[in-house]
Structure formats: C-alpha cells, structure tokens
Amino acid sequence: MAAREGNLEAPTRHPLDWKNPDFYNEVSAFKELERIFDICHGCRRCVSLCGSFPTLFDLVDESKTMEVDGVAKQDYWKVVDQCYLCDLCYMTKCPYTPPHEWNLDFPHTMLRAKAIKFKNGEVGAAEKFLASTDVHGQFAGIPIVVQVANAANQTKVVRSLMQSVAGVDKDAWLPSLATKRFRSGTPKAQATVVKDGAKTPGKVAIFATCFINYNEPGIGLDLLKVLDHNEVPYVIVDKEKCCGMPKLELGDLESVNASKAANIPVLARYAKDGYAILAAVPSCALMFKQEIPLMYPDDTDVQLVKDAMWDPFEYLMQRKRDGLLKVEFPVPLGKVSYQIPCHGRVQNIGKKTEEMLKMIPGTTLNTVERCSGHAGTFGVKKAHHQQAMKIGKPVFKAMATMKDGSKPDFISSDCPLGGHHIAQGFEVNGHGAPELRHPLSLVAKAYGLK
C-alpha cells in the first residue's frame, strides 16, 4: 500500500519512553534523528517556524550529497540546540505525525537528544542554574535583597559579568524579583458557596507558578480578583515546586521527575476533592496537561491532575457556557494587540483569551497567532538572544499596527515572559511603547476591579 501524503486525523501523542535504557543510546537516537531529518528535508513545510529547520536544511544543501546522508552526525547537535520545544511543528504544521505511518514526533526526538546530551554531562553549570527557577526565586520577598538584586541587574557592569559567567545576553530583558511573593500574602476568597456548572467545577485551586510567585504576583492577584468578582471560591495549593518545564527544555528528566514527585501528590488531592486547578502561565499548565502525562502514562494521579488542570481563560469561558460568568464590563480597553503563545495553542483549547477580550465593549482586538521567539530560557541566552529577536520580528511588526492602521493602547500575551520579549521587540524595532498588560490584568481592569 502506498504511503499517505499526510494525516487526515488530528495528531496523537505517544508516551515518552524515557525509562527505557535505549532512550539514552546515542547510536539508536541518531538513527531516528536521521530518519526524521530525511522526512523533514523532503517536506520543508516548517522552514519558517524556528531555527532548527533552516539549520537542518542549510546543512543538507551545503553537504556533498545534498541529502541527509551527507551531513556529519556531529552537526545534528546544531539542529537540536535550536529547538526550544514550542511544539508548534507537531501541532500545526507536520503532516506526518501519528497516526500517520511515518510516526514523526520532531519535538520529542529533540527532547531525547537533549536528554542524552544532559546525561553525558554536556550541559554546563550556567545553563543548569538558569533553569533553576526555584533557586532564583528564594530571595524574592526579602525587601533589601530584592532592591539590591534588581538594581544590580540593571547595571552594565553586572550584565556584562552575567554574560561572560552565566551566558545571559547583556541586552536581554530579565525579570525583577518581587518584594512580596504571591504565595505569602494572598487574600482569602470572598465567595464561600460552590456553584458547580455542567462543564466546570465551582471551586478553584491556584498553582501559582514560579514566575507569578517570585516575579509578577500582580498577575496572580488579578486572577483572584476576577474569581472573586465571579463568586468562585478559591484556595492556593498548600505547597508547590517548579512545574519542571525549564528542566525539560534542558533534557534534565531526573529533575522533572523530582518536580513531579513533589507536585503530583499535592495536586491530585485537590483534583480528587473536585477543584479545577488553574495555572496562569501556559507552559506550566501544559506541563501538567501534556508533558508529565506522557512521561507517566500509567500513573493514575498524574492523569487525574491532567484532567483537573485548566488555563484560566479556558475555565472562564466554560463558566460563561454554564451561565455562571458575569459579562458586564464597565471599563473599555481601547485598542489591544494580543499574541497567542505557543504553549497556549498546544493545549488545544481554542482561542479562549481572545473570546473573552472580544466580549468587552469599547475594545478592539488585533490577534497575532505566531511564536514570539522567547521560549523560556532560550531567549535570554547569549547564544540565542539575537535569534529569538529575529524569530519574534514578524510578531512585533504585526502587533504594532491595528487593522485600521492605528497604534495599540495595550500589548498582551498569556505568556508573561513572551509579553516582555514582545515589549523589548517593540523598543528595539522602533514600534512605539504601548503599555504591556497580561490578559488577566486587562480583564480585571475591564471589570472595574483595578
């Protein structure tokens, strides 16, 4: 039977066989890399997504055979290092993902290669530290330390030192530490009555995430205001560790395992108690919805947490369908340019943030559905920062002008890091300086809550 040209079905994901010793077999992994690179070379549909594909195609085109067999195996790492696991090739472009017989999973093959590199001790201490978000955040909430650290991070001397020692690009935007952690001072929920809907649990448990806890607690506080306004009782999960996404991007699967061991028993308890679990950073929600379940397909608690995990706007829009969301917005937002982040798209929930922002009277929305290029730690590294700015350039340009040619009042992205990367892209490319606000903060403003 002839091979089909592409999938007619939605892509499905196979579990990640990371506990199999062969997973770390470099010869076996390179054989699979060669197989998928050959398919990608014959297709080239993903050339505009990120640096991995142009790197691969240039290697092929410059080789003696002009085929994948002409590329030196050692050069495969150049392709691997450009992948930041956004998953867009798998979810939006590739015609050969399972259930197609060619069974092509580019991101997880890259992840396997990254895991081999990590296990072989080829990931430096600086990269490991950069991915240790819980370590960075331990100083948040200590006012004098925060003030000194934040001031130091803005000086040229310290940034040059960070570039030479830690590999952090001296020009990349870096988050500040919060003077008060989100988890240490959240108000108690105003609502006490649980109103379950046909589609939604009537009570919420908040997984704070490292970024909101240590860097921008205001986003989390705005989420609580929105929940209070809609009479949804909430609690903050009683303890949490980093979701593991930064470690996954490094191929450090043992650290991901440690995060899973800390988080899943806690979150499973909330899932069993009937809570919807909300994480306001798309990468963190995706970790519990997709990556951890694929690493532990037979773990019942992991699957319970997967089913209980919601993106905040996914939850709010389902509350609307249940007739339980307040839809009066007294404050217009004007012109909003909004980017849907990759890890939001990969959740397969549709354009829920856009849907809610479009409900607000006196608000014009310009939605851009393309990768910002930030990609977690990728965009701040000296090796990749300029590449990240290049990947984001079409996004910056598309967001800089509304459909009627006017300039936006606000720029926004569900990914807080991506949002700041976009704001930096506006500055670098001379697109003006509209106010950066997270979508949850925009909704809180539209409700008249701030």
How would you explain this protein's 3D organization?
This protein is of the alpha/beta class. The protein has four domains: about 20-120, no CATH class; about 125-165, no CATH class; about 180-320; about 330-445, 3-Layer(aba) Sandwich (Rossmann fold), CATH 3.40.50. It has helices at about 25-45, 50-60, 75-80, 90-95, 105-120, 125-130, 135, 145-150, 155-165, 210-215, 215-230, 245-250, 255-270, 280-295, 300-310, 310-320, 340-345, 350-355, 385-400, 415-430, 440-445, and strands at about 205, 235, 275-280, 310, 335-340, 365-370, 410-415, 435. The strands form two sheets. The protein has a four-stranded parallel β-sheet, sandwiched between helices. α19 (about 385-400) packs across α20 (about 415-430). The longest helix has 20 residues, at about 255-270. The chain is globular, with a radius of gyration of 22 Å. The mean pLDDT is about 90.
